[in-house]
Structures are given as C-alpha cells and as structure tokens.
DNA sequence: CTGATGACGTGTG
DNA sequence: ACACACGCCATCA
C-alpha cells in the first residue's frame, strides 16, 4: 500500500500507545510525553508522535497534543482544521492552535489510569 | 555508517 | 510569553 507508510511490524510500543489514546476520556487531552512516560519511554516522546503516524482508525489522535497544549499534529490530519474541529466538538476551546485551560483538561495516564 | 528529519521536552536568556 | 539550543531516538536518504 503506497498510500500508507510502513510501520514497524512487531512493536508492542505502538499498540500500547494506541491503547492509552483510546482510553482518553471524552473532553480530556494528554501529551506525547505523558504517554511516553507512562510506557516507560519517558525520553522518547518523539516516538509517541511517530507511533501516531500509523494510528489506525478508532484512535482519537486529536486528543494528543504536546506539553503546551499546542496542536502540533494538525498537519497530519486530513485537513489542518480537522483536529481543532474535533476538539471543539468535545467541548474544548482553541485559540491560536492552542487548547485553552489545558491544565484543567489534561489527562495523565500514569495518574488517572495508573495500571487500572 | 553518517547525516538529516521530526505529531517532543527541558533548560536558558 | 517568546526564541533558541540541546538532548532524545526511530526512521530514511
């Protein structure tokens, strides 16, 4: 499939990332670093972003932003406004590609989920 | 193997 | 708050 970029065949890390992202409650968001830290790859937040590159359907990647709440991944969606539109639909307010009250809607997997 | 790239994060000014 | 440099590490040319 030339349309889909090749992704590592056997990488549980990717599956774990997708699992955590799917568990993000509606109306909440998290960061790449938080997911990386939760999976033990705290120094590899970039790998989480790379994992999103092959995000399968059903994974709300729009709920994953960088640590500032900035929609850094909007360019990878179908259209650049897709990410913001989806977030606004879930009750978030976006200003200048950044989530307002980010600290309030932030969802830390290692804190909220914490091996449940 | 080497260098560049990137959906990141932290430190510094 | 903003800009820049550096570290991090899988992937690609």
List the helices and strands and how they pair.
Elements: H1 12-22, E1 30-31, H2 32-39, H3 45-52, E2 64-65, H4 80-89, E3 94-95, E4 98-99, H5 102-105, H6 109-113
Parallel strand pairs: 1-2
Antiparallel strand pairs: 3-4
Helix pairs in contact: 2-3
The structure holds a DNA duplex (13 and 13 nucleotides).
Question: How would you characterize this protein structure?
Answer:
This protein is mainly α. 40% of the residues lie in helices and 7% in strands. The protein has a two-stranded parallel ribbon. Strands 3-4 form a two-stranded antiparallel ribbon. 27% of the residues are buried. The mean pLDDT is 89. The protein binds a DNA duplex (13 and 13 nucleotides) through residues 6, 8, 31-33, 36, 41-53, 55, 61, 64-68, 71-77.
Keywords summarizing the entry:
6 helices, two-stranded parallel ribbon, 116 residues, DNA-binding, two-stranded antiparallel sheet, globular, mainly alpha
């Amino acid at each position: 499939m030339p349309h889909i970029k090749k992704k590592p065949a056997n990488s549980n890390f990717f599956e774990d990332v997708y699992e955590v992202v799917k568990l993000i409650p509606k109306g909440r968001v998290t960061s790449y670093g938080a997911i990386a830290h939760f999976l033990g790859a705290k120094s590899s937040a970039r790998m989480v972003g790379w994992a999103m590159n092959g995000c399968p359907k059903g994974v709300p990647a729009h709920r994953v932003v960088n640590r500032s709440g900035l929609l850094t991944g909007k360019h990878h969606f179908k259209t650049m406004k897709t990410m913001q539109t989806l977030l606004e639909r879930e009750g978030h307010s976006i200003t200048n590609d950044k989530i307002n009250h980010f600290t309030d809607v932030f969802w830390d997997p290692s804190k909220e989920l914490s091996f449940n």
